[in-house]
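Entry for the shared binder. Reason: the reviewer on the internal report wants the predicted structure included alongside the sequence.
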Amino acid sequence: MARVFGIDNKYQLIMIIILSFFVVIVALAILLSNIEFEDKVEGTIAKVVNEGDLVVNYIDGDKIDFNDKKEHSYSISITNTSSAKLYYSIYFIEVNNSKVKVRIEDKDGKVLNELDNLANNKLINLESLAGGETVRYLIVFDNEKKIDFEGTLKVDNDSLSSESFADLILLNNNVVAPKTRVGSEVATSNEGLISMEDNKGTSYYFRGNVDNNYVMIGDLTFRIVRINGDGTIRIVLNNVLDEARPYNTNSLANLASVSTLALLSGSSLISYLNSWYDENFREYSSFLTVGDYCTDTTFNNNISGITYSSVYERIFEDKAPNLFCSGNIYSGKVGLLSVDEVVLAGAAENIPNTSYYLYNKDIPGNYVTSSSYFINVSNNVAMINVMSNGALGDGILITNNSYIRPVIQVSVSAKVKGSGTIDDPYVIVS
């Protein structure tokens, strides 16, 4: 008689099925652990951001996230909705790995910049965009090696920045003590940025063979002399004007002291400087400002019939230049270097110096400062001059020709781009 399939057999069958299912699951887990799946790539989430009058469309999103070997590209467009020119920069923030290859292309596929490291680097820095215009970019990651990268793409409206020219100079330079004795020794090495008080606060002046104080305005090259105490920037033309001319050919006013002929404000030179300024800086007038230029008219040190000004004792005897003006201040849009500024930059009396930043081999002769020197026995006034070899000279009569090296002031509100080197000079952008 056949045995009836009982409960025990059914139980055994169920257990076999469960065990088989478990074995399959374990086998799949082992198999899947050896399979390399495609890594994650961030999805596209468009984002539009208003940066003042700058509208930024992150077409492929601003959050970048990948960890594969593929090339990834992200499109953005930037529109200036105002009528004025604006400036912007493009860079990454909150990156987990800065060592990644990335490039930026324009709408025609032209590569504008390539980076191997995102640390402290920008894809676009202070680029201009005219009112009403739109520009488009493609940002491409060329991932040759598998890299896990996360970061946020950022476009800044730099016209909204509060960082001043003075802030940027201080950011790019450490404030240090002079390495040589100021006033008695020339500075031939790069001694950097040094602080000293002036009439308006703490000033910072460059000394020696400085290589990061270049400024371009239009097609003219300047060198930064110092940050003034009020935060404006004093810059001097890197060369001299083409025409040598007298400091002052004006006649002495009735009952006036001969010492007043040393005043920059009353000189024949000032009208020439103002004409040069108006011709070259009309479109930059909102970025430049009035500066204070000092002339000493106290002549009280008589030596062998020659009466020297108060500058003589300070510079040539005490060898103690400073930035305080104890004489007459002329407030104007253009002026000259003071002898104190020349000495602080690295010059000294009768010691040639062809290694400090005020020396320029293309300057063919003496150039005049705004600092008075002496009144001679013939009642002629002389100003302190700088010779073509970089040394302080023996003085030049105000009626004699000398070369002219103008000084102007950049306003506190001016924004600049660049690092100050000869290949990447500071350039005023707004």
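Summary line for the report: The chain is about 15% helix and 35% strand.
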